[in-house]
Amino acid sequence: MQNAMANEAKPCPCDIGDKIEYGGLGEEVQIEHIKAYVVKPPASEKAIVVIQDIYGWQLPNTRYMADMLSANGYIAICPDFFVGKEPWSPSHDWSTFQQWLEDKKPTDIKKEVDVVLKYLKEQCGVKHIGVVGFCWGGVATHYLALQYQEIKAGVSVYGIVREREDRFDLKSPTLFIFAENDAVIPLDQVTTLETRLKEKCTADFQVKIFPNQTHGFVHRKREDINPDDKPYIEEARTDMINWLNKYM
């Protein structure tokens, strides 16, 4: 199947140049066949599954997001959805991206998700589960919103499921966050998504485009680079927390 990213010189410009120097407040655990980063507030029955971008579950930026969610009262878990396979690296050749992606489809994670949900319910006493994902994980979040009635809320950050017939039939309330100047996701795709959701979707949803922003803005350490972006980054992160709080 022709992927909409295939013609891009850089099919996923999650610019890693501003990677956060960050250790993380949580711990790494083994859950059946996958590893995961988990961070817990003192007491919570609510959990968020944080889904990585192409740079993998150990990216400090993503762990920073998990810690931020935990500071807002949620158990946050960031599993290795590549299941030990090597994540993408800034040094890789973009011409090999499609090949790299072949065995790491964001719509092929049900086995791992089921393991994580079981762990949260049985080991952590969780009663309410939400999902937040970035880039690759944004696609995965959209996919899970189509599959799992038990997920109370989802926030898909710069990601769209493009190839499924049922992609507008959300089962759980989902906030879609996009960047206006995203090289991967043209605005006409975002407009189409919103139009079709309005026609077909019975669950609550919101599609929000942030002006002048580029792919990766929400979970990148851009505060140090461009002060003009800072209000948008903070607004998007606040929207994420508010959406989860509203439905969970």
Automatic annotation (TrEMBL):
* GO function terms (MF aspect): hydrolase activity
Give every Dienelactone hydrolase domain span: 34-247
GO terms for cellular component: cytosol
Pfam families associated with the record: DLH
Entry keyword Cytoplasm:
yes
Q: Where in the cell is it found?
A: Cytoplasm, Cytosol
UniProt keyword annotations, A-Z: Cytoplasm, Hydrolase
InterPro entries linked to this entry? AB_hydrolase_fold (IPR029058), CMBL (IPR042946), Dienelactn_hydro (IPR002925)
Q: What is its main location?
A: cytoplasm
Family note: Belongs to the dienelactone hydrolase family.
Which named protein is this? Carboxymethylenebutenolidase homolog
